Fold this protein.
Amino acid sequence: MFEKRGTPYYIAPEVLQERYTSKCDIWSIGVIAYILLSAAPPFTGNTDEQILEKVQEGKVTMVQGWQGISDKAKEFVKGCLTVDPAQRFDAQQALDSPWIVQFGTLPCDQNVASVALENLKKFKSDQTLKSATFSFIAS
């Protein structure tokens, strides 16, 4: 795959170099998991360019919003958000990760699902507000 496609928050570093494989999808899964667990994206900035610079650096921190998140969940996210695609989880490794295995066999905990949904809503609303603010300032 050679075309640069994607959105700044979810795009894998190798896509920006226009040379990537299906492992770029594992990166995006890691971003989504990060947002569901913490209500914030792993890479932020005031502009798309700033976000893309941080994506290329690939430095993932788990500080704000990560209290009470299990080590297994953190390891899953780190495995998905490894900059080097050769070292990143592939689909089978992601499915076999202890966090996925542990929760893949349990019934859904409604409280946990509600928190994840609220985190996703909060992230979306924060981005909508940010976009509206930038549009207002620009006009």
